[in-house]
Design goal:
Keywords: Membrane, Transmembrane, Transmembrane helix. By secondary structure, this protein is an all-alpha fold. Among the domains are: 62-146, no CATH class; 149-182. 57% of the residues lie in helices and 0% in strands. The chain is built from 6 helices and no strands. The chain has helices spanning 62-86, 90-93, 95-117, 122-146, 148-160, 164-183. Helix 1 (62-86) runs antiparallel to helix 3 (95-117) and helix 5 packs antiparallel against helix 6. The longest helix is centred in the middle third of the chain and has 25 residues, at 62-86. It is flat, with a radius of gyration of 34 Å. Residues 35-40 have low confidence and may be disordered.
């Protein structure tokens, strides 16, 4: 059995010929570099060549960029205030909803300002992520405030619990009260 990867045996070995350039349109010479076969940088974007360059972006206005960065900073500070307020005990935790709503409004304004100023790239993606996070926090805070009495009972029970078993009992009591409360809501409870 012969080796399929071995060079062919027998006969003189010749080098393959180099490809020749096709003759030019008038005198039979090869086309000049940058001609229709070789697209140089000047020919990208000309009609009929299959490549279109995107329209150049307008230059970034420094004053608009400064205003956009100020609004992004205000959005970031409002998000920070929301996160800090969420970690506070319940009467003060209600302020987090106001901060979260303010963060949503400021985030939308900051995103519009960044887009109008001509800034692109990661800043737009980060603002979009932050805006989604602010909306998610707003929704969770509205849900938490709808369960205010149950949350207050849990918080006072956990404050007085000194042992692990007492903490577990508080969590079990909270879960039971949460289930009872949700059963009374139309469309959520299992009795509907």
């Amino acid at each position: 059995m012969s080796n399929p990867y071995a060079p062919p045996s027998g006969g003189p070995r010749t080098r393959p010929e180099a490809p020749t350039a096709p003759p030019g349109p008038e005198d039979g010479t090869a086309p000049a570099p940058g001609g229709p076969d070789e697209q140089g940088p000047a020919q990208h974007g000309q009609p009929g060549h299959g490549h279109r360059t995107p329209a150049p972006r307008p230059p970034v206005d420094p004053e608009a960029a400064r205003e956009a960065s100020r609004q992004v900073m205000h959005f970031g500070l409002m998000m920070l205030a929301t996160i800090i307020a969420v970690s506070l005990p319940l009467p003060w935790q209600a302020a987090a909803l106001a901060f979260a709503l303010g963060a949503v409004v400021l985030g939308i304004r900051a995103l519009r300002a960044v887009w109008r100023s001509g800034l692109r790239g990661a800043l737009v993606a980060i603002l979009g992520f932050g805006l989604g996070l602010a909306a998610l926090l707003t929704l969770s805070l509205v849900t938490m405030l709808a369960l205010w009495p149950v949350q207050m009972e849990r918080q006072s029970c956990l404050r007085d619990a000194l042992t692990i078993s007492a903490t577990t009992a508080c969590e079990d009591q909270f879960q039971q009260r949460l289930d009872e409360t949700l059963e009374r809501v139309p469309g959520v409870g299992s009795g509907s």
